[in-house]
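Q: Could you predict the 3D structure of Ribosomal RNA large subunit methyltransferase F?
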Amino acid sequence: MTQKKNAQPKQGLHPRNPHRARYDFATLIKATPELDQHVSENAYGDLSVNFSDPLAVKTLNKALLKHFYQVDHWDIPAGFLCPPIPGRADYLHYIADLLAQSNEGAIPQGKGIRGLDIGIGANCVYPIIGHRVYGWQFVGSEIDPLAVKSAKFIAGNNPRLKGAIQIRLQKNADNIFTDMINDEEVFDFTLCNPPFHSSEEEAMAGSERKVRNLAANANKKQQARSRGKVSPAFNNAKSSTTPVLNFGGQKAELWCKGGEVGFIKKMINQSATKATQCFWYTTLVSKKENLGVLYKQLEKVGAVSVKTIEMSQGQKLSRLIAWTFLNEEQQQEWRQERWS
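A: Sure. Here are the predicted structure tokens for Ribosomal RNA large subunit methyltransferase F:
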């Protein structure tokens, strides 16, 4: 199997993100041999996987986690969110930069640094990357008992993760930080990929749009094949016209009442009740038009500093917002006590 030598790096990813380069499928297949059956040549002559196939996406993730982060045992139950690894890694690298900006340019690393992953899911991906790259310790919250069981299995059955990740069941779906950050507990940062649809119907409509785009790409590939541009031997990926969530996702992972704005406003309000127990609260925001409402809410609850960090992967643009309630004196004390 050969890789195109002139393939360009992926645009927009963080400079420290190891996934900036094109996938080296020969190396990934060596790490995870079952990936081989999912790799084929696409319409542009590049090796790729069929991203409309949930099993192909999951197997690619297995290979990436094995090769880059030395995670030997990783799997998720059918139907749960299987996130794209490059984007997840980007979020963590930008959090590292955020901490460095508050620490005279040095990234705080090691087991003394604690992060809280809101909605860890069944996949445990954020804590895996954060611990393997920066040595951070994590607590992950989750409202789905099956997802908790899956994440605990991953954290407990990989030697390089043992003792670094704790998963907690959030019993009240209306709570985010309430009943999750204990009274004497502190975190250096939180992170969250919030549900961004407001209803199941809206989530399904988004899935259908994704399927239409995948079908359009499949048609392009068929046209290229008919012109002799794609070798039939490499063209074994199957297209689908059924609205399949290729990256999966349960109800709580995809939608909630009030959608993204409703969820993040609740997060902001509850963070204010734990104002001095975390240095930087952060969350992804998928829709740029939601920022104005969120800025107003942060001002209302008294956030001292708010930062917006733009991220991109190819043509896909996203962003995270971060806020802190700590003033300069409190930030200095935090650095001396935890990061020095």
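Q: Anything worth pointing out?
A: The chain has one domain: 9-340.
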